[in-house]
Amino acid sequence: MGELLNVEEIFASKVFTLGKMKERLPKSTYKEIKKLMDQGGELSLETADVVAKAMKDWAMENGATHYTHWFQPLTGITAEKHDAFVSHPDEEGKMIMEFSGKELIKGEPDASSFPSGGLRATFEARGYTAWDITSPAFLKEDATGVILCIPTAFCSYTGEALDKKTPLLRSMEAISQQALRIVRLFGNTEATKVVASVGPEQEYFLVDREKYLQREDLIFAGRTLFGAPAPKGQELEDHYFGTIRERVGSYMKDLNVELWKLGVTAKTQHNEVAPAQHELAPIYETANIAVDHNQLVMETMKKVAGRHGMTCLLHEKPFAGVNGSGKHNNWSLGTDNGVNLLDPGDTPNENIQFLLVLACIMKAVDTHADLLRQSAADVGNDHRLGANEAPPAIISMFLGEQLEDVVKQLIETGEAAHLIEGGKLETGVSTLPDFEKDATDRNRTSPFAFTGNKFEFRMVGSADSIASPNTTLNAIVAEAFCEAADVLEKADNFELAVHDLIKEYMTKHQRIVFNGDGYADEWIEEAERRGLPNIKSMVEAAATLTTDKAIRLFERFGIFTKVELESREEITYETYAKTINIEALTMIDMAGKKYIPAVIRYTKSLADTVIAVKEAGVDASVQAELLDSVTARLSAAKTALDRLKKVTAQAAAMEDVKAQAFFYKDTVKTVMDELRTPIDELEMMVDKSVWPVPGYGELTFEV
Ligand code: ADP
Ligand code: MG
Prior knowledge:
Blueprint: H1 7-10, H2 18-24, H3 27-39, H4 45-61, E1 64-70, E2 82-84, H5 101-105, E3 106-107, H6 120-123, E4 127-131, E5 138-142, E6 145-156, H7 165-185, E7 194-208, H8 209-212, H9 216-221, H10 246-261, E8 266-271, E9 277-282, E10 285-286, H11 287-307, E11 310-313, E12 327-335, H12 348-367, H13 369-375, E13 397-398, H14 401-413, E14 448-450, E15 455-457, H15 467-488, H16 494-508, H17 521-530, H18 538-542, H19 548-556, H20 562-615, H21 621-652, H22 657-685, H23 696-701
Parallel strand pairs: 1-6, 13-14
Antiparallel strand pairs: 1-2, 3-4, 4-6, 5-6, 7-9, 7-10, 7-11, 7-12, 8-9, 12-15, 14-15
Helix pairs in contact: 7-15, 10-11, 12-15, 12-16, 13-15, 20-21, 20-22, 21-22
The site of adenosine-5'-diphosphate has 16 residues, from strand 7, strand 9 and strand 12.
């Protein structure tokens, strides 16, 4: 018998939920808060004072001593600065714990140490954080104690977004407004907003902490920079959905409990394709909360691993030659009166609305394929996208056999008269079938797949924030909705106009639909013929942020200003250069201080052996041959090491960030590979006992 887990009691026990507000706030205050959450608007200082007091009391009852504005700077991770509730003691020396409404709604952290991509000059290093009232406050417990965390947006004093949350919230506003125009056209007068929902599936690796600590590359770069393949990889496919090992199982259990306490609906868990790789998926929720929760999932995964003597690797490619990690970003749009815009529905009217929405998404994804690809760019993800792994760097849409057939008929005849599975439609688009998720999951190679009532964007990297992909999705689809509504609202004959528009959009943008194998070389050629962009790296993707097309899109819906976009492009180059620089320096360190000395010692003992064997009057050709091969690789490694030192120094001295990032990608990375090759070959040749670090087999199979 396992110990009893009362999930109902545990769930959200560390969250200042709406329910707790209802219990603790005066009725009128609660109502005001609820209204602001639903409809937006400014929180008055008086109300904020009341909420702050209730929040502080609850937090202190649960052991909190500090609070923090929890935000998401452009580093992609979260930041916090703790302030204690303590204030001046009263006359009798009694400590008064304070937390005002002003402190709840606004903070003023020094922004100068966060990346701002040139925005810094315009705001003189001052920034402020503002409470995102729609994302609940929660308690975080670690060695520093219990901290009340208030999810906030982070802006400069002049209002430029310095974080990932602000543009996301702006994009949610935009998609809501534009999607409402669409549902109104179909007679939905009840809906007051449309919410983007997101469910991210998170992949991760677990390795033994002792072994992890023996590898500088894992410590500094989060991935192995050297390493020969283990005799066994993932070829037997025996790990996927395999029985979960004891140690990993108890980790998963602990992780679930911690996440449930934080109100994260951790739902499914299983082993993934690669050895030591696993996945966790929560139940989907409103986009901004899903983004916050995914950050908490990543933090909690790392924290809990430590308790089990393991380290959680969130990097997209911890091990070469083994499957990498991503995040499937499931995305849909729903009205507040319960209609999922991506659900075909049961009536002809709902079907036509669905087909219009689909046509708009086809248009959006085709028009802005470059931006969508960019939204999933991060340094680690360069090892996945376009590197013969899930998924390719080319954006395309998978619709499934049935839906693709409907689209084809609409393009050809303007009607979908029959269904592939045999059903017949009476007139035009009558009722569409349920587009069940393809049971065989043949679409695993697609970067953007329709899966029944949502789209699954599979390009996102495992270590990355999901804020940018969702900001981009919301923005590009808002634009398509806006342009469709502009036409349809003016139409004399609505039915005819919708019909024509669906046909027009689908015809114009059909090139984005691809149901085949996304890994095949033929697809790369085919995509090129279709004119679809194939942006292979993060640095090449960065410039898509500042094209006229992108600036027009984001400024039109108030999501990013031109300056904000320019800053993000610059930060991309900076981040890339810094990351590769760390990797190169780590390689230099490991090769120079560990691998090469170990191999030199080995050649010494080999040489001694050769001499001894010869002296004994016996044939030493096997030993001599090995010594020869080892020495040749040792020499290749030393040459590459010297070259890597040189190009890394050259790169570090470059002034122009863009040129620098490209130099790291084209030159430094190439030399990194040149150094890795002989070392990995040596790992397979030399005596295991002399190898200075744990290898792939020990790291991935002995967890
Ligand atoms: P998979 O087979 O890819 O794991 P699941 O059905 O388990 O697919 O769902 C994966 C994720 O998609 C989960 O996080 C789930 O909550 C989320 N999801 C399901 N429906 C929707 C929806 N309508 N909108 C957004 N996300 C959704
Ligand atoms: Mg999935």
